[in-house]
Design goal:
It contains 25 helices and 15 strands. The chain has about 625 residues and is of the alpha/beta class. Strands 3-4-5-6-7-8-9-10-11-12-13-14-15 form a 13-stranded parallel β-sheet, with no helix packed on it. It has a two-stranded antiparallel ribbon with strand order 1-2.
């Protein structure tokens, strides 16, 4: 029925479909297993590919396989010749598939590192941005060949060599690289074997380097001498914004040197010094520097045994500091032996000052008396957004002190009280009652480890949900008043507003204006309903702008139909609208300025950047 013909690929087609079908049926009968094409023998097609088209197909399949091996990190399955052929096939055009090279826990050999170096040198094609090589037991020549390649690379911005076997020699090679490379912005070297000499090599290089912004040296062997080398670098470097020196046994001498360096440093934003045996003397040295430094926003000093006296030093210095945002003092024996000195100092700071915006006190035995001191004047604070009090030995009396303060506080967004078993069901009930009156808290961490947890938990959740929507309403109302004030009060600014803003004004103003004032301002608002840009010569606008300011304020206040804003807040919004310099502000900047703080409408309580920007570096996160 069918003749033998050649297939389009040059393969002999000797069986008709009918014949193949009949054979497959016989195969089914003779086997207990259902027929599957996988049971047929594998055909090796290379010997049938004879013409140019078939060779192209073969080449494409081979190059795709090489590319897949590179992406997966199975470099042991390819050769240098394979990589050369692949790079040549791109024809000089860049490819996005290599933007992130993540070879973690692969135990890369020297030959594999050699292939990787070839990719790094071809940066005009590969365009590698992130190079992640953690947990590969790298050291010696394997590392050197990568550093040599990076000297000729101009695309890699993130270099992660954490959890390897880097020592002072590798740190020296890296230092030589950093003297020449001006592209790398983030370096992660945690959990290696770098000592004080390695810190010296890196520090000398970073005195000359102006590209590195993040440096992580956590869990190395720097000791006090290494800390002194780092401090000399910080005195001169004006590029590094985040540095992590945790778990390096810096002791007092190293901490003292670093403290003095941040007095003159003007770029550092985040400083991590956890597990370095700082003690209260080191905390005192840090506190002295914080009175002078006005750029550091994140300070992490957990597990350093600073005690109550050390916290008192820091709190007193922050009375003169206006920028520190986040303070992590977890596990520092604060409140030990019923000492309340630290909590008293922190309470006074929060009552009088606008910083910090987040505090982590987890695993400090502050107890009930410590809570009473901390929250004594907390109702006056409007800027603290997050407070972590997990596992702080808080009982019923402490929860009562917290709850009484929450009834009046209007700033706190997140509160952690889990792992405080002594608060019991009564403590949860007291907190639930307080949250019925609180209008700001959006997130609470609790254990609910008692029989009546469900009803109390539902009550707390309802209060938090209500606060979330209330906050959203505040932001929408503030934005509406801003738009109306800019159009009605400042014709000069109106000329600079985008046409779309003029067009979109009437839909939100008209429905929201109370009938009581509509007759008064209808001649003024009528021009807004037209899609054209308002003219500075409009007489109606002039008449509105000449009204007494009290009346203007009264009219604009009617846009707050649900009465979610206070009079000072409305005045602040109007004042903001009248300033030409505020036209380019973002919504976040506007809300922070007029409502004194901006709280993201999201369940995520990480309000600021931590040590790492990449979500994969979870071990570096502090909050």
């Amino acid at each position: 029925m069918f003749k033998k013909v050649s297939s389009p690929l040059g393969l002999p087609r000797s069986l008709s479909l009918e014949t193949f079908s009949s054979k497959s049926k016989k195969l089914k009968r003779s086997s207990t297993k259902p027929f599957s094409f996988t049971t047929l023998p594998t055909l090796h097609l290379d010997r049938f590919f004879t013409n140019e088209g078939h060779q192209l197909v073969t080449s494409y399949l081979k190059l795709s396989q090489i590319q897949n091996h590179i992406q997966k990190g199975t470099l042991h399955k390819i050769t240098e010749k394979d990589v050369d052929e692949l790079l040549k096939s791109y024809g000089g055009l860049s490819t996005p598939v290599y933007e992130t090279i993540s070879y973690q826990e692969l135990n890369l050999s020297y030959n594999e590192c050699k292939l990787l170096a070839k990719l790094l040198k071809a940066n005009h094609v590969t365009k590698i941005r992130k190079l992640k090589l953690s947990k590969n037991h790298l050291s010696g020549s394997s590392v050197k060949i990568i550093f040599d390649a990076l000297q000729k690379n101009s695309t890699v911005k993130v270099l992660d060599l954490s959890f390897n076997n880097l020592s002072d020699n590798e740190a020296k090679w890296l230092g030589n690289l950093l003297k020449k490379n001006d592209t790398i912005q983030e370096i992660y070297l945690s959990n290696n074997r770098i000592k004080s000499d390695g810190a010296k090599y890196l520090s000398k290089a970073l005195m000359m380097n102006d590209s590195v912004e993040r440096l992580n040296l956590e869990s190395n062997l720097l000791n006090a001498e290494g800390g002194i080398h780092i401090s000399k670098m910080l005195e001169l470097n004006d590029t590094i914004k985040h540095i992590h020196l945790g778990s390096n046994n810096l002791n007092f001498e190293g901490i003292e040197a670093i403290s003095k360096s941040i007095e003159s440093n003007r770029s550092l934003v985040s400083l991590s010094l956890d597990i370095n045996n700082i003690t209260e003397e080191g905390a005192k040295s840090l506190a002295t520097s914080l009175e002078i430094n006005q750029t550091l926003t994140h300070l992490y000093v957990p597990r350093n045994n600073i005690g109550d006296r050390g916290l008192s030093y820091i709190c007193k210095s922050l009375l003169k500091n206006s920028v520190l945002t986040y303070l992590d003092i977890e596990y520092n024996n604060i409140g030990k032996d019923d000492n309340v000195e630290g909590m008293k100092s922190l309470g006074e700071l929060l009552e009088k000052n606008k910083v910090p915006r987040a505090i982590n006190l987890t695993y400090n035995p502050i107890g009930d008396e410590g809570c009473e001191q901390l929250f004594k004047g907390f109702h006056k604070n409007t800027t603290l957004e997050s407070l972590l009090l997990s596992n702080c030995n808080i009982g019923l009396n402490g929860i009562i002190a917290i709850s009484d303060s929450l009834k009046l506080n209007i700033g706190l967004q997140n509160l952690a009280l889990n792992k405080n078993s002594n608060m019991g069901a009564d403590g949860h009930l007291v907190l639930a009652d307080a949250l019925e009156k609180n209008t700001s808290l959006k997130s609470v961490q609790l254990d609910y480890n008692f029989a009546e947890w469900e009803s109390i938990g539902n009550s707390i959740q309802q209060s938090l949900t209500r606060n979330h929507f209330l906050q959203n309403e505040k932001y929408k109302t503030a934005a509406n008043i801003l738009k109306a004030a800019r159009i009605l009060l400042n014709p000069t600014l109106q000329q600079q507003l985008p046409t779309c803003m003029s067009c979109s004004t009437s839909p939100f103003i008209s429905p929201m204006i109370s009938p009581m004032i509509s007759p008064m301002i209808s001649p003024i608002i009528s021009p807004i309903s037209t899609p054209r840009r308002l003219s500075i010569q409009t007489p109606e606008k002039k008449s509105f702008s000449k009204l007494p300011f009290e009346l203007q304020e009264h009219i604009l206040a009617y846009l707050d139909t649900t009465h979610v804003l206070t009079k000072p807040q409305i005045l602040e919004i109007i004042s903001f609208a009248l300033k030409k310099s505020t036209l380019n502000f973002t919504m976040e900047e506007f809300l922070s300025k007029t409502l004194y703080a901006y709280y993201p409408l999201t369940p995520d309580v990480r309000l600021w950047p931590t040590e790492a920007t990449d979500a994969e570096f979870l071990s570096f996160e502090r909050f």
